[in-house]
Write a structure and sequence with these properties.
Helices cover about 35% and strands about 35% of the residues. β3 and β4 form a beta hairpin. By secondary structure, it is an alpha+beta fold.
Length: about 170
């Protein structure tokens, strides 16, 4: 009997995630208990990451780059080199968006972990999303680490590392 209840629960969760994905939404699939364990500082950092990822999922570079520090360093699977500085990151991001290869259909964060060390925060999570032109979009499963620094009262992302989960 238990397996049947678990199967129904997992099906309902998957259906909800699929519906959110179809609407292009991000979601934090954590329990209320997990969210309650976040300190106020961790919750503040997570809100920044959620807004940053929403701008990413909305293919909105203008909003996306408001979360990025001038001295950003980015390491991503699609680039054979390290991207340094906001100007180079933006150039790479917008080029890929125009080309269509990084156009996002949907994006979801999974299993986020937030750690705050004074004015520095480290956020890790898995993600799944749909990337590419709508007629040729592919689902990708990725691992991401974001490092943020609080400057003048605002959290800014100074480092992003993304790798394939498989």
């Amino acid at each position: 009997m238990r397996w049947w209840i678990v199967t129904l629960a997992l099906g309902a969760i998957a259906a909800g995630a699929g519906q959110a994905a179809a609407r292009g939404e991000t979601q934090m699939p954590t329990t209320a208990a997990e969210q309650a364990r976040m300190s106020p500082a961790e919750a503040e950092v997570w809100e920044v990451i959620e807004a940053f990822n929403k701008a990413f999922a909305d293919n909105n570079p203008d909003l996306y780059f408001t979360f990025i520090d001038e001295e950003i360093v980015v390491i991503i699977p699609s680039s054979p080199y390290r991207i340094e500085g906001l100007a180079d990151d933006r150039e790479e991001f917008e080029f890929s968006l125009r080309k269509g290869s990084t156009r996002v259909g949907y994006f979801q964060e999974l299993q986020p972990l937030v750690r705050v060390y004074g004015d520095t925060a480290v956020v890790t999570y898995y993600s799944r999303g749909s990337y590419g032109p709508p007629e040729d979009a592919k689902t990708a499963f990725l691992k991401e680490t974001d490092v943020l620094v609080k400057k003048s009262g605002t959290w800014k992302i100074v480092h992003i590392h993304v790798s394939r989960a498989q």
